[in-house]
Structures are given as C-alpha cells and as structure tokens.
Automatic annotation (TrEMBL), chain A:
Protein localization: Cell membrane
Family classification: Belongs to the ABC transporter superfamily.
Keyword Manganese listed: no
PANTHER family: DIPEPTIDE TRANSPORT ATP-BINDING PROTEIN DPPD, OLIGOPEPTIDE TRANSPORT ATP-BINDING PROTEIN APPD
Domain ABC transporter, first and last residues per copy: 6-256
TM ranges: none
GO molecular function: ATP binding
InterPro entries xref list: AAA+_ATPase, ABC_Ni/Peptide_Import, ABC_transporter-like_ATP-bd, ABC_transporter-like_CS, Oligopep_ABC_C, P-loop_NTPase
Protein name per Swiss-Prot or TrEMBL: Peptide/nickel transport system ATP-binding protein
Position of the signal peptide: none
Topology of the protein relative to the lipid bilayer: Peripheral membrane protein
Keywords: ATP-binding, Cell membrane, Membrane, Nucleotide-binding, Transport
Main location (coarse class): membrane
Lineage summary: Bacteria, Bacillati, Actinomycetota, Actinomycetes, Kitasatosporales
TrEMBL record, chain B:
Keyword line: Cell membrane, Membrane, Transmembrane, Transmembrane helix, Transport
Protein's organism: Streptomyces iranensis
Membrane topology: Multi-pass membrane protein
Assigned protein family: Belongs to the binding-protein-dependent transport system permease family.
Protein name: ABC-type transporter, integral membrane subunit
Keyword Membrane: yes
Record GO biological process: transmembrane transport
Record Gene3D superfamilies: MetI-like
InterPro entries for this protein: BPD_transp_1_N (IPR045621), MetI-like (IPR000515), MetI-like_sf (IPR035906)
TM region(s), chain numbering: 12-30, 101-125, 132-150, 184-206, 241-269, 289-312
ABC transmembrane type-1 domain mapped to chain residues: 97-312
Entry's Gene Ontology cellular component terms: plasma membrane
TrEMBL record, chain C:
Cross-referenced Pfam families: ABC_tran, oligo_HPY
Domain ABC transporter as annotated: residue spans: 7-257
Origin species: Streptomyces iranensis
Gene3D superfamilies for the chain: P-loop containing nucleotide triphosphate hydrolases
Keyword ATP-binding appears in the UniProt entry: yes
Protein name, per record: Oligopeptide/dipeptide ABC transporter ATP-binding protein
CDD domains reported in the protein's UniProt record: ABC_NikE_OppD_transporters
Annotated GO biological process: peptide transport; transmembrane transport
NCBIfam families in the record: oligo_HPY, PRK11308.1
Alphabetical keyword list: ATP-binding, Nucleotide-binding, Transport
GO molecular function per UniProt: ATP binding; ATP hydrolysis activity
Family: Belongs to the ABC transporter superfamily.
Length: 324, 322, 329
C-alpha cells in the first residue's frame, strides 16, 4: 500500500461559546490515498465542513482553535505559519464551495479569477495566465471559451459557474481537491454533469478528491471510500460498498433508510430517526448519537472508538470488546 | 438604451421645471406675501407700492410673470436682481462658480482619501483596539457642525493664535488660482479641512460597514482558499465591491455641494461662492437670484444623479446588461 | 382513494415582465407558466416536479391565488376563482392553504407558536378565544408539538419543528387543499422523513388533498399518487407516480430520473437499469422560448417536426398524459 496523501489524526476544532469552548469537531481521523475519492457525509452540525475549513486555516474566527495533526505529503498543516499555509492553499489543496452564485467576486471576469489563481502561485505573464484560463475553461466544457473567458460570473448559469470554479480550483494542478457540497445548489441534470466532470478530471489530473455532502446518492456515485460523520466525529468509515451494503452503525442505517428513493418498493411510511441532529454545544458525554438511537444501552454513556478492520465503526454494538 | 436615455433626460427636465414652479409659487403666490411690499420697505405709502408693482411687473397675471422670469433666466440670460437693480443674475452665478468648485473639489479629495483609509483600517482591524478609536473619531467628525467647527478654527487661526502658530494663515476670503496659486491654497486649506471632517466621518462609517459585510461573503472565502494574501483579499476583492455604494453616495454629495450645499462653510470662511450668493439672496429675499441659484443647484443635483447612474454601470458589471 | 375533482386548472398562463421594462407597456416577458391544465382530485396528492425555473412554484402560487394569472381558468370545488376580488376570495381562502419552503422566514419571529397558529382563526373569526385556544392545542398535538411549546418563539425551534409549525398554521382553517412548496428541501435527511410521514398521517386522518411541489424526485415519489413533470413552464408528463417513474414516456422525464444519483446499497432496485443520460447544455431562457417542443434543443431523440410543432398533452390508454411527438415505449 502506498503512502497516504493526507492523514488527519485526532482533529479538534473548537469555538468560544457562551459557556466555555464548544467542540465542533471532536477527534476526527481519516486518510486520503493518492487518486482516491473520499466522500464525507453528515447532516448539519456534524462538523463535516468545519473540519476541512479548520485544517486549511479558513476559519477566521479568533475564538477558534484547531488542534491535532494533519499531515499532507509529509508536511504538518496544523500550526503551520499562515504564509506557508497560503502556499499550500490553492496550489496543493484546492477547494470548491457550495454556491457557485456567490463564490466568485461579482466585479471581475471569469478569466480574471482563474488568472489570479495561477498568478498567486506561479510567476507567469498575464497573457500566459489568460491563455491557460482559456484552456482550462475548454477542459471543463465551457463552450466558446476564448469568448467566455471575458464574461462576468452573473452572465453564466449555475452549472457553468460551478464549472468555472472547478477550472479555477484545478488551475495549479492540486494534489487534493476538497469539494464542499459542490452540487447541492444545482439541479439534478446539472449535478450529473458536474459529477461526471469531477470524475473525468480525476483521471486527467490525478488529483485526489474529498467530497463533503449531505447527499448519500452523490457519495455513492462518486466516492471510493465513505466517512459518515455525526456530532463532530466519524461514526463509520469504509469503502462505498462496505458502508452502503452493510452499514454497521445505527446512525448510518437510519440515515440510509430515511432517504426517499426513486426506485424500489414504495414504503407506506419512511423509517425515521427520532429527534433532531444534535447541536455541538449540547452533545452528551459518551456516544453523541445515543439520545436518538433505538439500540442504546448502558455502555453508550462512554465514547466508543472508531475500530474495525478496514470497515470501521464507532459503536459498542460492533466493538470487539464491550466494556464491563 | 437610447429610449432609456431620452426618458432620463425627460424626467430630469420635468424635475427642473417642477422646482422652478415651486420656488416661484413660494415667493409670489403664498397668501399674505406681497413681493412689492418687501421691496418698497416697511410703511411704504400706497402710491409707492403701486409704482413698485408696476415697475417690477407684479401687476401682470402670475403665469405671465413666471414665463417672463423663465425667459429672462434661460433664453435672454439677462435676468436682473431686485435688490441691486441692473446687476445681472447669470454672470453672478458664473463668477461664483470657481470659488465653489475650488472648495468642493479640494474637500472631496481629502474626505475620500481619509474616509477610505479610515474605513478600510477600521474593517481590517475589526475587533482590535484601533477599530473603536477610528469609529469614535468618525463620529466626532460627523457630530461637529460645520459652522461651529469653522468658527472655532477661525477663532484660533485668525485671532487667538494668529500671532504665533498661525502667522501664515491669510485673512478670510478667496484668491483665484489664476491670480496666485499659493495664496489660493492657503486661503482654502482650513475650509477644505472643516468640510472634509464631516464627510470623512460619514464615508468611513459607511465603508466600514460595507467592508465587514463583504468580508463575510462567499467570494472572500473562495479568494482565501486560492491562497492569495490577506492584503490582496481586502483591497482587490472586498474593497473593490464595497466601493460601489460609496461612489454612488459620493456622486450625490458632490453634486449637492457644487450646487451650493457648502453654504455654511462658504459663509463662515467668507468664500464668495454659490452658497454665499444664495445666502445673501435669501437674506434680502432677492427672488431672481434665489431662482437662479436654486435652478443652478437643481441642475447639478440632477446631473450628479445621471453621472452616478452611468458610473455605477462601470463599477458594477451586473447592472451593465439590464 | 381518489374522488371527484377538487381543483381544476385550464390553460393557466403566468408571465412576468422582464426587469427594466416599463410598466404597462408590452415588453419582453418571462414565460413562467405557459399553458398548464391539470386536475387535482379530492384525497390525492399530486406531485409537481421539475428543475429550478420550470415554473412549478409559480404554478403552485397561482393555483391558491397568491398571484394573478395572466390568462386561463382556475376552479376550486366547482367555483371559478380565477378573477375573484380579495373580498370575494375571503370565504374561499380557508379551503386553500399553502406551506412554504423556508419555515424560518415564513413565520413571524415576534409571535409565539401558539399565536402564529391562532392568527388565521382570529382573522376569520372562528369562535371565542377559549374555543380558539382549544383548537390551537388540538392542531399542535396533531403535528407533534406539545401545548407547552405553544408559548415559545420560532427561533427556539429546529428546522423540522418550525416546519411543523408552518403545517399547523395551514391546518388551522380546516383546508381541503394544501399546496406545499418545497416543504422539506431545507431540512436534514433524517428530519425530512419525519415531516414527510407527518404529511401522510395528516392526509389519512383529515382527508386532505395535496399539491406537492418539489425538486427532489425521491421525495415527490414518496408522497404522490400522481406526478406532473414540468419543463420550461409546461407540463410534459402527468400520470400515476409508479408508472411515470418506472416507465417514463417523455425523454425529459427519462433524463431527469436517470440523473438522480442512486445509493447503491446492494439491492437490485437501486442499481440503475439504464445508462445515465447526461443532458447537454442548460435550460433555455424562459424569455425567448424555443419553437415547437421547448425540450427539442436538448432532446436526444428530436426530429424535424419537434422543432416546429408544439406537441399537445395527449392522453394514452392508461390515462397518462404526455406532451411528446415520439413518446418512449
């Protein structure tokens, strides 16, 4: 097995709350292998977005602290001086965010945005950067790129804009692309186009991809491995097949069952998980899912560890040894 | 686009016409107000009144009076003052224009530079000690009335400390730049500063709010993810977008000031500009001059509005294609 | 389970003037709803699906008269309500209610939940204060909220709970028809299922009829008896939910269904049977609609007459309506 590209160990992200610090991410560990697509699924408040933002120094709240370890190509990102981290952001690790409508500065052309990305990390002329921008727009499937390079973001449709954002993210050939809800604001037919595009670009650029989403369908279509998050922790991890065919954790099972499908038997009532996703400020000690779990028992007042052989789960039901 | 321009011009002309009618009616048709009585002076006998009335044409129907005045103001351009008979209104205004432009342009340069610097600094240092200090300075500037600040400045520069620190300050008044540029500058430096203090505070506060909003936008997060410097994010992304409302406000303020809104500053510092002219005309109820300055002011405000609309499209590509 | 026609829309058109156009003058218009005819039968749920900009939400609002229609006819319980004035509409209003997408912005933040639910009752003078109080308690109980929660404010609730409040408010006047516009799309998956079940329970207990507008094809299938698929302001396919999903007849429906990402959980039902059809390009501009069939520029099966002739919404033997010259077999 080759070296992991990105290895996160015991990541904690906490914010200053009204009554003491609030842990949004509470001991998260995962690895991304070169060329792999990792899907991170979770509901609101699971810490799925905060974790990646925290790693890259994108949380500007001065009451926030990020601890743990995040080794990227052998370099430790946590505690890295901002100047050095900036040379990683955009160049080695690029990000694509949810809403393509608001993620580009409205007063600049699409080409300007891409050229800015290139020139932030490489010393090339404006003309050469513009030329690269046109090539990139062509690569992500923008028709007539030589003309559209001078278009403003508002002149693009949502799908086209997300293509342009992806072109910008790929401008410096990053080793890892983190896509945070990349298709959530898009229609299904556009979503299908963008997912196809991301998979194609993985082939041509060899980038690893981390897709953060609430949509398990998207993960199932695109990811090699899945990480299911709840309450600031990973509750289950494994290959797509392992997690979706034989989910171990009660939360994963409940989540999968409650998605209304377009195929198969139409159930009279959807199975549900009682209660609501838990806010990070009112998380119980022990398993965060326990208050909503139908299978909770005495052991659940203690925090289960993420254990297993390849297919990992953080639940006392699947733990090799239940505490006495 | 052509249709839009024509409609804009039509609307502007309508506004100018409505203002002229309004001003005219206020002075000529307000019940109980008799312009002849004002001109003739207190306790004038009926014969004098009648003579004044005939001499100034007040005996004609009101619409005729209005049309005659408009004709003299805009077409013949020979409208004369009621108070100093024979003194023409239009040359008075054109003569006063350079002083007003000197005052307003100089002050505008100062307040835009200071306002943008203060607003940007306050937003960049948000949450640190400098932010409330800058905000406080801004509020202080806004809350000092121009006439009071001007008088205080004059008190120190013209009398109290005139023999020591401010020996170099010339007496109040105005010197044309064509005559002596250095004296022009010295005469205007304090008027500029006192006018700029007010606006710099307002602009700094507006810009700070806009910038703080912009720094929370998704596009700033995208810019950060690209790995560009915080300085570049602030200036090229956040400030660039925040300037759009600032510039449109600037256009309106500038238009109003050129139109004579700097009246108090001009009076306090004895600058013979449009504001000063309006002030004198109002004191004497010199209707032709009031009408002239009001029409001139309205023209600049309307012009500034149009300029802002055009410039807005340059600044914000989103409105270009509507 | 389905009965007589409760709501009937005939050739409903809704145009919006384009921004910047002078009011009252003939300028370019957005064809938001472009000639929709459909019937909602008592006791059923008619799902309306489509992508953003297809006019599904506008249609929903027009049908409950929250906006004026440009032309066409809307009948509710046999009465023509298309042009009723505000005052004449008042007695009809209680029968027709709406549930909105964002439970936060559609609830008054300064009112308690109890006051929000009581408001329509007070406006329509339904009983004494004591009676209204009892009714509110009953409704809150139905949607799964406790009487104690009636004194709290919307911001104290999670998204799912707020949507329950929105539903409770719409139930206050004992409506016959509820138009729900994306009622679960702002909610987390685990909460979505709870709210969808609530819709089903209420329908069973109160005999409600729903027009359920949503972009999520899974959600719409879950709640609907019949489904209307919209594209660019027109209904392209309308039929029983199971048939529309298992054997789509319109190429757009087929492409839409094939684009939905499936969760491959090992069961045969979730493995896509057909190859995914990725539509090229974007939805055309609704100001300048394509000629003929509006789907032809993106349709993989388009032929010459699709470019010129607009296909009518025609009924096949099984009662399914399709607007296509060459429906899929």
């Amino acid at each position: 097995m080759s070296e992991p590209l990105f290895e996160v160990t015991d990541l904690q992200v906490s914010f200053r709350g009204r009554s003491g610090p609030v842990n949004a991410v509470n001991g998260l560990s995962y690895t991304v292998m070169p060329g792999q697509v990792l899907g991170v699924v979770g509901e609101s408040g699971s810490g799925k977005s905060v974790s990646s933002m925290g790693l890259l120094g994108l949380i500007r709240d001065r009451g926030a602290t990020v601890t743990g370890s995040a080794r990227f190509q052998g370099r430790e990102l946590i505690g890295m001086p901002d100047r050095e981290l900036r040379s990683v952001r955009g160049r080695e690790i690029a990000m694509v965010f949810q809403d393509p409508m608001t993620s580009l500065t409205p007063v600049y052309t699409v080409g300007w945005h891409i050229a800015e990305q290139i020139r932030a990390h490489e010393s090339i002329s404006k003309k050469a950067a513009r030329h690269r921008a046109i090539e990139l727009l062509a690569e992500v499937g923008i028709p007539d790129p030589a003309r559209r390079v001078d278009a403003y973001p508002h002149e693009f449709s949502g799908g086209m804009r997300q293509r342009a954002v992806i072109a910008m993210a790929l401008a410096c050939d990053p080793a890892l692309l983190i896509a945070d809800e990349p298709t959530t604001a898009l229609d299904v037919t556009t979503q299908a186009q963008i997912l196809d595009l991301m998979l194609r670009l993985r082939e041509t650029h060899g980038s690893s991809i981390m897709v953060i989403t609430h949509d398990m369908g998207v993960v199932s279509e695109i990811a090699d491995r899945v990480l299911v998050m709840y309450g600031g922790r990973a509750v289950e991890a494994g290959t797509c097949r392992e997690v979706f065919h034989t989910p171990h954790h009660p939360y994963t099972r409940g989540l999968l069952a409650s998605v209304p499908r377009i195929g198969g038997e139409k159930l009279h009532r959807l199975p549900t998980i009682p209660g609501a996703p838990i806010a990070s400020s009112e998380r119980p000690t022990g398993c965060a899912f326990a208050p909503r779990c139908a299978e909770r028992h005495d052991a659940c007042t203690m925090q289960p560890l993420l254990t297993g052989d390849g297919h990992l789960s953080a639940c006392w039901l699947t733990a090799p040894e239940v505490p006495a | 686009m052509l249709g839009y321009t024509i409609r804009r011009i039509g609307a502007a002309l309508f506004v100018l016409w409505a203002i002229s009618v309004l001003v005219f009616l206020i002075f000529f048709a307000t019940p109980g107000v008799d312009p002849a009585a004002r001109i003739a002076g207190r306790n004038a006998d009926p014969a004098t009144l009648e003579q004044v009335r005939r001499s100034f044409g007040f005996d004609a129907p009101i619409t005729t009076q209005y049309l005659k005045m408009m004709n003299h103001l805009f077409l013949e351009r020979d409208l004369t003052s009621f108070v100093n008979r024979g003194s023409r209104v239009v040359p008075q205004i054109t003569d006063a224009l350079p002083a007003t432009l000197s005052l307003v342009i100089g002050a505008a340069v100062i307040w835009m530079a200071v306002g943008i610097a203060m607003g940007t600094a306050a937003a960049a240092w948000r949450g640190k000690a400098a932010d409330p200090v800058i905000t406080l300075l801004g509020i202080l500037g806004v809350s000092m009335p121009v006439y009071w600040l001007g008088e205080v400045i004059n008190l120190f520069t013209q009398s109290r400390m005139h023999e020591t620190v401010f020996r170099w300050v010339p007496p109040l008044g105005y010197v044309a730049p064509t005559e002596n540029p250095w004296q022009w500058f010295l005469h205007l430096i304090f008027p500029w500063l006192s006018l700029a203090v007010l606006y710099a505070g307002i602009y700094a506060r507006l810009l700070r709010g806009e910038l703080i909003g912009a720094l929370r936008e998704d596009y700033v997060r995208t810019a950060r993810a690209k790995g560009i410097s915080e300085r570049r994010i602030l200036v090229r992304h956040a400030l660039r977008c925040s300037l759009i409302p600032v510039v449109s406000l600037f256009g309106l303020d500038f238009g109003a000031l050129v139109g004579g809104a700097g009246l108090l500053t001009e009076v306090v510092f004895g600058i013979p500009g449009i504001g000063h002219l309006t002030y004198n005309a109002l004191q004497n109820l010199d209707l032709p001059v009031i009408m002239g300055t009001v029409m001139y002011a309205a023209f600049f405000v309307v012009l500034a509005n149009a300029a802002v609309d055009l410039f807005y499209a340059r600044l914000d590509p989103r409105v270009r294609h509507v | 389970m389905t009965g007589d026609v409760l709501l009937k829309a005939t050739d409903v058109v809704k145009n919006f003037p384009v921004r910047g156009g002078a009011a009252g003058r003939r300028g370019p218009v957005v064809h938001a709803v472009d000639g929709v005819s459909l019937e909602v039968r008592r006791g059923e749920t008619l799902g309306v699906v489509g992508e953003s900009g297809c006019g599904k939400s506008t249609l929903g609002r027009c049908l409950v008269r929250l906006g004026e229609v440009t032309s066409g006819r809307i009948e509710f319980e046999g009465q023509d309500i298309t042009r009723l004035s505000r005052r004449r509409l008042r007695p009809v209003r209680p029968g027709l209610q709406m549930v909105f997408q964002d439970p936060y912005t559609s609830l008054n933040p300064r009112r308690t939940v109890g006051e929000i639910v009581a408001e329509p009752l007070l406006v329509h003078r339904r009983g004494t204060h004591a009676e209204i109080r009892a009714t509110v308690a009953d409704i809150l109980d139905r949607v799964g909220l406790t009487a104690e929660q009636a004194d709290r404010y919307p911001h104290e609730f999670s998204g799912g709970m707020r949507q329950r409040v929105g539903i409770a408010r719409s139930l206050a006047l004992e409506p016959r028809l509820i138009v729900a516009d994306e009622p679960v799309s702002a909610l987390d998956v685990s909460i979505q299922a709870q709210v969808l079940n609530l819709f089903a329970d209420l329908q069973e207990q109160l005999g409600l009829t729903y027009l359920f507008v949503a972009h999520d094809l899974g959600v719409v299938r879950r709640v609907s008896n019949r489904i209307a698929v919209m594209y660019l302001g027109r209904v392209v396919e309308l039929g029983p939910a199971d048939r529309v999903y298992s054997t789509p007849a319109h190429p757009y429906t087929q492409a839409l269904l094939s684009a939905v990402p499936r969760i491959d959980d090992g069961t045969p039902a979730q493995t896509p049977t057909r190859e995914r059809i990725v539509l090229s390009g974007d939805v055309p501009n609704p100001i300048d609609l394509p000629s003929g069939c509006t789907f032809h520029p993106r349709c993989p099966f388009a032929r010459d007459n699709c470019r010129t002739e607009r296909p009518p919404l025609s009924v096949d033997a099984t009662g399914r309506q399709v607007a296509c010259h060459y429906p899929l077999g």
